[in-house]
Amino acid sequence: MNDPRVLREARSRSLVPTRRPHYVGATVPAAALEPDDAAAAEVPRLQTVGLRKSYRKGQVTIPVLNGVNVEVREGEFLAVIGASGSGKSTLLHLLGTLDSPDAGEIRFDGCRVDNLPARRRDILRNRAFGMIFQFYHLLPEFTTLENVLAPLMIADGVVGYLRRRRRYADAAKELLATMGLSHRLKHRPRELSGGEMQRAAIARALVMGPQVLLADEPTGNLDRAAGRDILRILRTLNHQQKLTIVMVTHDLGNAEEADRIVRICEGRIEKV
Ligand code: ADP
Ligand code: MG
């Protein structure tokens, strides 16, 4: 990876005009959202309380999470391990508000987010959470650059985006340069290697300057060298920029890159 200072600079640049995020519910104590508030420093960046989730298949109910309590501190890199089918992706999707729990709460900076209206959750996901997945989930018809610009288009609306598109494109290109992808700006995902697709997905996840990066088996589809490269990028983002990361993986070797490891077993969190 290139110079981490460039990465830091690109990420810290305010790309979208800064507004207080709209995901805050009216009942939320404002103090919990001030980053330099001493009280807020003790509040976990992300926390689940008694999280439960089961899936229904016809008449059968499959319990997956049976009361998950986990905390992620600001600036922490947490790895969640567990066997295949243990509920790792389910947990990550719940943390990222892609799905709703049956019971329990998810708190982001002390504010409950699992029960927000859909529109507020969309904004939260767009601005506060970056996500990467085993199969990248890049938009196949978009170029690498357009994929990274997509969250800015969503955040700013067509008019705002068009007004600022040059600045946005410059910033997205700079971010892609830090991922070693300057020579792939106009390529579509099918023209990229797995490692390149994941680096593009990381750039897309970072472009809004998220508070948390959620990674679901980010090296699961990569060869060893490309996988190591992705883990090195995640570790650099965590060390250099204090980015909070939650990575789920079935691979203990990958998990050892993190500050702390927990395991999902029988629907609950265990210390490792
Ligand atoms: P992991 O990521 O640890 O492999 P998942 O969270 O994907 O596990 O899945 C946990 C369990 O829930 C598995 O038994 C899986 O088959 C089931 N499951 C996951 N998603 C669904 C769904 N949308 N509908 C029904 N069952 C599901
Ligand atoms: Mg999974």
Low-confidence stretches: 1-14, 18-33
Query: How does the overall form come out from the CA principal axes?
Result: globular
Bound molecules: adenosine-5'-diphosphate, magnesium ion
| Spatial ordering of strands, largest sheet | 6-7-8-3-9-10
Any idea what the CATH architecture is?
Answer: 3-Layer(aba) Sandwich
Tell me the Rg in angstroms: 18 Å
CATH-assigned homologous superfamily: P-loop containing nucleotide triphosphate hydrolases
**How many E strands?**
10
Task: Give the tally of structural domains.
Answer: 1
Order of helices and strands: HHEEEHEEHEHHEHEHEE
Secondary-structure class: alpha/beta
CATH topology heading: Rossmann fold
Overall mean confidence score, pLDDT: 89
Strand content: 15-25%
Biggest sheet statistics = 6 strands, mixed
Kindly state the percentage of residues in helix. 25-40%
